[in-house]
Design goal:
It is elongated, with a radius of gyration of 35 Å. About 23% of the residues have low confidence. Among the domains are: 126 residues, Serine Threonine Protein Phosphatase 5, Tetratricopeptide repeat (Alpha Horseshoe), CATH 1.25.40; 152 residues, Tetratricopeptide repeat domain (Serine Threonine Protein Phosphatase 5, Tetratricopeptide repeat). Helix content is 63%, strand content 0%. It has 36 helices and no strands. By secondary structure, it is an all-alpha fold. Helix 12 runs parallel beside helix 14 and helix 14 runs antiparallel to helix 15.
Amino acid sequence: MAESAQDLLKRGIAAAQAGQKDQARALLQQAVRLDPRNELTWLWLSSVAKDNQERVFCLRQLLQVNPQNEMALKGLRALGVAAAPGPAADRPAAAGVPVAGDQTLKAVQPLLDQFLAEYTAPVEPDFGFQWARKTRGRAGEQSAARLRVGMVAAVAVAAIALVALVALAGGSVITALTAASATPTPPPYTPTPTPTLGPTNTPSPTPRIPPTLTSTYEPALAALNGADQFKRGNVLTPTPAYKQSEYATEPDLKRMQDAYLAGNYAEAIDLAKSARTGSVEKQFDTYFYEAMSYAMQGDYDEAEDVLTSGDIIADGLPIEDFQNPGGILSGHGESTMALLNAAAGYVYYKQGRLDESASFNLSAIRADPSFDLPVLTQADVYLEQGRVGDAYDLVLRATTDQPRLRYNVLLLVRLGEIELLRGDPDAALTLARKVLYIDPLAESAYRLAVDADLAFGQAADRENEAVAWYGRAVLDLEAYLLYYPDSVTGWALMGKARYLEGNLDRALPAYDRALSFDIPEDAMTPDLRAALQEAYLARATMYAERRLYLQAIEDYTGALQLGDSRAALEGRARASFTIQDYNRARLDLETLLEADPDNVEYQLMLAQILVDTKEYEEAQPILQTLLGSGRLTVEQTGAVRESLALTYYRLAGAQSADERDSALVEQANTHIEEALAIGKTGTRYYYRGLIREMAGAPDLAKHDYEWLLVWQGVYSYDFMPDVEARLEEIDKALAAGGGS
């Protein structure tokens, strides 16, 4: 399958950040041919250009797409080159003047090489600039400023030459991302820097809360090279040092590593097995990549089998004595020990064997403290054990003491997640901005920023502050979804932020978008499954609030199809009960009571279903147990007594008048009087009137029915026709002398 322009752009940026300039240039050239109107692609292509001649061409092409792009204008000025004359560069197009469309731009692509060959570049001036720490306008102050700083930093990592342009010009890239486009919006799910963001075309107001962020970084960031590249996403990989192992030059091993890093796990497994043929003791790296490939596909038992084969890992003990003469790992260095221990630690953690995982993780960290995988896994072990402080200390120490981990995206995001658990959303937000400064496409950092925004909103003392933070979350999500328009998690979070913000009409389309993707089962990761389930639950809640109970039931069912969920069962039971689908409600309640047999709310609802379906004898034991439990609120006690009164009345009514058990009528009267003492309601007056009639006191029943006549103008009682008919009969009987 041919790669999309967006995929090529992502790969090109990753290669540029890794210092692989030629590879980045080739990927970005392919991307720009597929999508010649993507400003971000032209910007990155200029950062990896062969020389200033090519750089000037890229910046001018960027101006053809957006004549107001400040990065391109200031970049050309810094190079001492004027923007190309004409409407596209110097002035807006006059009315009626056509603008080159996509087909025209694609047609001129073959002229690129000829143009570059003939173009004579000016001599590059000596700028003599110095990197200066920003003191104002820091990342996080406004949505535009956040995106601007992230983009500038990404270019800084990719090419120091372009950093020079940005440092001199101090330009903003947000203009390029939000300026009006002269061409139609691209098809859905294709991110471009001219976005139609969010479920609506009107973003939330920019929050007015003063930020307290400090995410502008030292010049050392600009000096990072390929050895400090970062791996984005949730796939845990060894840091690049392990790609340069003692066998890194062997072609079959390099292909294996590349396949693993690209997420082609089946291919990595085949290459690992092939690479071991004839040299099992020599190439222990293959066991790591094969085991981790199985683990990334969720096959942890197979991963364990790989690691325990050939006595590499035996008896569940870490490989401490790896230099033991004659041992299977004799002659191999610390990187081999760290790799194998880290893989075992990760697999055992996924199997829930926390103590075994910890021993392997700590062994791997001792062998090489600059390896990120065992640090990440051990932090998760600590968090599972409730040791948040230990997880924080471990990750903080790794990112502080180890130069190679100082800008590790995975570790910095994990540190931010732990800060949220520690109740410090400000620190989490600062770390999210830091990661986005390092890597503007770090998806996990966008999620961290949004989680921090939501945490601020939920902790706010005043409603207007809370709404402002939820608005900031919306703005962060718009930036996130610009680059990841197919993110289920992103759209689910957008729905949540819109809902909390009070924009219910905009929350629903966001949840609709999250649930619109057709995801094959083999691509359903645990995180994705959780995001989809949360989206179903949230949308179901919104439907229930709007009394769209059938739609709510459908979504609760969708959530349950993704996995067990008490919230989904509860919601479906309530919605089913409300529309009197008692069969479904009863089944869900029975399932809930199996897990939580003492839950008062479940028992009350089940008892009410039994009363409504005229199963009075089955309802009575449940109601009596609840009444004697001492766990009911005053209101619940009133409801239980009312239901008991009705069951006794119905059971007495099923008997003939001559054989009626007076004790049943007496019990019914006692419970309804107690219920009315707790709270006066129409149904309770109605039931007492019925009971009084049965007890032979129609004059007293008349008082209850007349009370209902008075209040029927305020409350709508569906039993009023019966009340009026009974009053008429009582009046006739009393007039005839038949009443007391």
